[in-house]
């Protein structure tokens, strides 16, 4: 049976706002939760309260708020929520990278989720780097006619459009029995940062000079993956059997 009422925790963030917008477009009754009083996808946000009557709760918090999900999971289970979607949207738990201490909060949250034993279980998404971070990995300065690529630039990574993650979740909510306790690995495309730099050169139609910059703490996940030779997930495990036409990541480069 199709879900109807969906709560989005972290709805005002870069990911949460796009997930909320996609779910609204797909016709769900969406409640965006936030400590900040604002509007998301035309809906006024609410502070987190009772979750009675919600079919599913989606968490879209960032790394610093990861462990807040444990209290949210307990509240959702107590109030009768059917399914919980944790704020994964990144590293595949089966990948080598998932064992790094940096990602321990995700491990703790997922353990709490499994122990909660929701009536319809959980659905989790592993993704590539979001479209919103491309500009921080490959920086364009038209004034100096340069493109600065972070790190080596030759490693192929998955990239994922945030709005499409919302569309994927919408599909799972329309067919909940098919995605109970299921991981999906979503990418809109696989590119090296050097390839992204070339796409920017093509789009600007200018002979921009490409230079490399050492990775630092401003891009911690990229720095960790490149230093260790890891990736967010194995390309051979990418989910490809969903009946959705995902956007081309090229369209999000150089915006």
Automatic annotation (TrEMBL):
Stored Gene3D superfamilies: NAD(P)-binding Rossmann-like Domain
Q: Does the keyword NADP apply?
A: yes
Q: Which SUPFAM superfamilies match?
A: NAD(P)-binding Rossmann-fold domains
Cross-referenced InterPro entries, in alphabetical order? NAD(P)-bd_dom_sf, NmrA-like, NmrA/Isoflavone_reductase-like
* Single GO MF annotation: oxidoreductase activity
Highest taxon of the source?
Eukaryota
Which terms are listed as keywords in the entry? Answer: NADP, Oxidoreductase
**Domain NmrA-like residue range list:** 53-214
What is the name listed in the Swiss-Prot or TrEMBL entry for this protein? NmrA-like domain-containing protein
């Amino acid at each position: 049976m199709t879900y109807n009422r969906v709560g989005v925790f972290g709805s005002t963030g870069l990911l949460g706002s796009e997930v909320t917008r996609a779910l609204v477009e797909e016709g769900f009754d969406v409640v965006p939760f936030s400590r900040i009083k604002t509007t998301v996808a035309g809906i006024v946000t609410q502070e987190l309260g009772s979750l009675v009557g919600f079919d599913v709760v989606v968490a879209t918090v960032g790394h610093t708020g990861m462990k807040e999900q444990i209290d949210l999971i307990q509240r959702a289970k107590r109030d009768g929520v059917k399914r919980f979607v944790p704020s994964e949207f990144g590293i595949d738990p089966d990948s080598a990278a998932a064992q790094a201490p940096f990602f321990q909060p995700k491990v703790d949250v997922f353990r709490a989720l499994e122990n909660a034993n929701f009536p319809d279980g959980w659905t989790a998404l592993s993704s590539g780097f979001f479209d919103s971070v491309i500009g921080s990995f490959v920086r364009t300065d038209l004034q100096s006619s340069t493109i600065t690529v972070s790190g080596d630039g030759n490693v192929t990574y998955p990239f994922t459009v945030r709005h499409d993650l919302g569309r994927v979740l919408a599909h799972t909510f329309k067919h909940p029995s098919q995605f109970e306790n299921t991981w999906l690995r979503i990418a809109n495309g696989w590119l090296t940062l050097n390839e992204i730099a070339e796409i920017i050169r093509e789009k600007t139609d200018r002979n921009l000079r490409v230079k490399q910059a050492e990775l630092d703490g401003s891009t911690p996940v990229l720095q960790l993956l490149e230093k260790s030779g890891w990736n967010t997930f194995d390309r051979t495990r990418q989910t490809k059997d969903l009946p959705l036409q995902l956007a081309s990541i090229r369209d999000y480069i150089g915006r």
